[in-house]
Specification:
Elements (H helix, E strand, L loop, with lengths): L1 E9 L2 E7 L4 E6 L7 H9 L15 E9 L4 H9 L9 E9 L4 E5 L2 E3 L1 H11 L1 E3 L10 H12 L2 H26 L1 H21 L5 H13 L1 H17 L5 H16 L6 H27 L4 H20 L7 H64 L6 E8 L16 E8 L7 E2 H4 L2 H14 L8 E5 L7 H14 L4 E5 L3 H4 L4 E9 L4 E7 L2 H13 L5 H12 L1
Parallel strand pairs: 3-13, 3-14, 8-12, 12-13
Antiparallel strand pairs: 1-2, 1-4, 4-5, 5-6, 6-7, 9-10, 10-11, 14-15
Length: 561
């Protein structure tokens, strides 16, 4: 419940602290005194949009803070814990909003700065504000459906229906996308199939191109290789007149012989011996290479053709020849993916049928429950309307089917298959019609209030605020409205801004709003009325500015009732 509201430099409020009680609190005051200012300030604490004119003139910022008790509010505690904005022992939640004169604002929850959207999220779990025109919302189909479902505790059934509806819509979108791209996929499939077939026929193996390139270079330069190898062998060993190996062997033998005389030549002798051994090995390897090297025009033609084809295919696909095998594999994967899209279409069609079956089953269960609950709620609201000075009032909740008979397209709605319509009859002999066609603003307000009282035990927020919802009501009806609001306050904290004495007298706490001015600046103040002042205020509401003994007696009688 709401415990305290602190307002600093907001509109015509300089400084204001309001302590709230449980039960029912009524707020009264003269016209134009600013009875709704506290509600407006509270709305900003709950995340309403701020404008620059909310800051009091000649001030830099407005500072607003609302303190709520959350000891018994499990949903609010869970939300705060999830966002790490409350300790385990904390039983209070403080929402704060600071708005600069330039229109910028900062939001805080329990001292931590948060995005504005989080104020809105937690606010929905703490308080529910009904403005002067909010009763007009009940003529909207979605609001009517929500009210019936709240009364019947349909959250689990709605969750199942919503799950299958969302799944069906998701599958439908995927199917539509696949159908839309089908022609494009077919053209793409033909191209890729041609490319894959071409690469399949060529059948280049992993690392084959590197081998091809090496063989191609060797065969294309085979004559140069033969000539150079033979020339080198001649110089090394095969020239009878002079060759390097014979000359080096002679040098090595000479140095080895004199090294035995002078050991300073031992290192030179060793180097020459090692060099002779290495050069002899090189000569043997080169001889072997020369013997294996041969000119084979037929092999060369095969290698040249395959190498050239690989280069041409790589150029055609704008890749390097080394990546041709990987590219081939990627194309085969794309082809398989396109083929799987066609398979997916058939699978989706089957899944849609199954999902639709589950949806219809869940929606039928929900619809049956709605029809039963609609009959019960219709009787309760009809009785409450009659108590609120509509003696012949009849209220019927019609649960129809939201699918048009001439519409062959499936209707999958997250709220189920029902079209909920609130129908009323106010006068004897009047046929039932849609509520917005026959009910006046005052009647709509009373019907809305009747619903709030009936649904009080379903309300998830511990605080309800009514901002002059009794506009257009007077006399015996006003007395019954006050009685209904007090009845509502047994289950939840009720705060009501009112101009009716019959409503104001029912509050457990009454606040009076006054406006003071020195000719230059205006200031709104709020004070809690004691018993004697409350009698005077009720008398003022009854008689106007001229309070008589008769009006005072009537006020005392109202407060005692």
């Amino acid at each position: 419940m709401l415990l305290q509201l602190n307002i600093q430099n907001f509109a015509i409020v300089r400084s204001l602290d309001i302590d709230w009680q449980s039960g029912m609190t009524t707020i009264t005051g003269e016209t134009g005194a600013g009875k709704s200012i506290a509600i407006d300030a509270l709305g900003l604490c709950l995340g309403d949009r701020a404008t620059t004119n909310v800051v009091r003139p000649n001030c830099k910022k407005a500072d607003l803070a609302a303190t709520f008790e959350i000891k018994k509010n499990k949903m609010a505690r869970a939300w705060l814990k999830q966002h790490e904005l409350v300790s385990e022992q904390a039983n209070e939640c403080i929402l704060r909003r600071v708005i600069s004169v330039e229109g910028r604002s900062k939001s805080f929850i329990n001292g931590s700065q948060v995005p504005l959207v989080q104020l809105k999220e937690i606010g929905q779990l703490l308080i529910n504000i009904h403005g002067q025109h909010d009763h007009q919302l009940i003529v909207k189909a979605n609001q009517q459906c929500r009210l019936l479902d709240n009364y019947a505790n349909h959250a689990p059934l709605l969750s199942a229906v919503k799950h299958y509806a969302q799944q069906w819509n998701k599958l439908n979108k995927e199917l539509e996308m696949l159908h839309q791209s089908k022609q494009q996929r077919e053209a793409e499939q033909q191209l890729i199939q041609y490319q894959v077939t071409e690469l399949d026929e060529f059948s280049l193996q992993p690392d084959e191109f590197a081998t091809l390139e090496k063989d191609y270079k060797r065969h294309s330069n085979a004559q140069d290789l033969l000539d150079s190898t033979l020339s080198t062998l001649q110089s090394l060993s095969e020239n009878d007149n002079f060759n390097i190996l014979d000359s080096l062997r002679e040098c090595s033998e000479n140095i080895n012989s004199i090294a035995r005389v002078d050991n300073q030549l031992s290192n030179v002798a060793t180097i020459l011996s090692d060099t002779l051994i290495q050069l002899d090995e090189a000569n043997n390897d080169l001889t072997h290479y020369y013997q294996q090297l041969e000119l084979d025009p037929q092999s060369y033609a095969i290698i040249e053709e395959r190498y050239s084809t690989a280069v041409q295919l790589a150029k055609k696909h704008q890749i390097s020849p080394e990546n041709l095998v990987n590219f081939h594999n990627e194309l085969k994967q794309q082809l398989a993916s396109i083929s799987s899209d066609e398979t997916r279409i058939n699978t989706i069609i089957e899944e849609l049928e199954q999902t639709k079956l589950h949806y219809n089953e869940s929606a039928e269960v929900l619809s049956t429950s709605r029809q039963k609950s609609a009959k019960k709620l219709s009787k309760l609201i009809s009785k409450s309307m009659q108590e609120l000075n509509m003696p012949h009032g009849q209220f019927v909740i019609d649960v129809g089917n939201n699918k048009k008979q001439d519409d062959s397209k499936d209707v999958i709605n997250t709220n189920g298959i029902d079209a909920i319509s609130f129908q009323v009859s106010i006068n004897p002999g009047q046929a039932l019609e849609a509520m917005h066609k026959v009910a006046s603003g005052g009647e709509l307000s009373r019907i809305s209030l009747a619903m709030q009282v009936i649904l009080a035990d379903k309300v998830i927020t511990p605080t309800l605020i009514f901002d002059e919802v009794d506009v257009g009501i007077s006399g015996p009806t006003a007395a019954m409205v006050g009685k209904k609001l007090k009845q509502l306050s047994k289950n939840t904290q009720v705060i009501c801004v009112t101009h009716l004495p019959q409503v104001a007298c029912k509050g457990h706490q009454q606040l009076f709003v006054s406006k003071l001015t020195d000719g230059e600046l205006t200031e709104t103040q709020v004070s809690e009325l004691n018993e004697s002042n409350r009698v005077k205020e009720i008398a003022r509401l009854l008689a106007g500015d001229k309070i008589s003994q008769h009006s005072l007696a009537n006020a005392q009688e109202l407060l005692a009732s």
